Amino acid sequence: MAGIVLLISTLIPAHAQTAPQPDKARLSLKVSGNCEMCKERIETAVDVKGVKTAHWSKKSGELVVNYNPQKISAESLESSLVLAGYDTEHRTATEQKYLALPKCCRYREPIPGDMKP
């Protein structure tokens, strides 16, 4: 009898770890930007209800968002970025939103003094 209880108790935790978690999702998305101010603005744009964490890498241009898809959709997160003036790999911010960015954050045009050979 004790062996059966031990067997059941070891199977339950293993099953719980592999069960799908409908309240957790991860979005990985390329987002254009230049600087630390961009990082702050991009991460703030997706700092909404349902988002657990958001991290944008200046080096890779990748934004990783851990969120609850029952509270917000990936499409809504991407819309928030575009409304903040940032292009993503799927959508482009309007010229008006883009030009509202600080000059150092304008990634569509060369930055003076940052000429690449």
Q: How are the SSEs placed, and which strands pair?
A:
Elements: H1 2-18, E1 25-30, H2 36-45, E2 51-56, E3 62-67, H3 74-83, H4 95-99
Antiparallel strand pairs: 1-3, 2-3
Structure description:
With about 120 residues, this protein is α+β, with helices and mostly antiparallel strands. Helices cover about 35% and strands about 15% of the residues. The chain contains four helices and three strands, in the order αβαββαα. Strand 2 (about 50-55) and strand 3 (about 60-65) form a beta hairpin. Mean pLDDT is about 85; it is low at about 5-15.
Stretches where pLDDT is under 50 for at least 5 consecutive residues are 4-16
State the strand order across the main sheet.
Answer: 1-3-2
Q: Could you say which overall geometry the principal axes of the C-alpha atoms support? A: elongated
% residues in beta strands: 15-25%
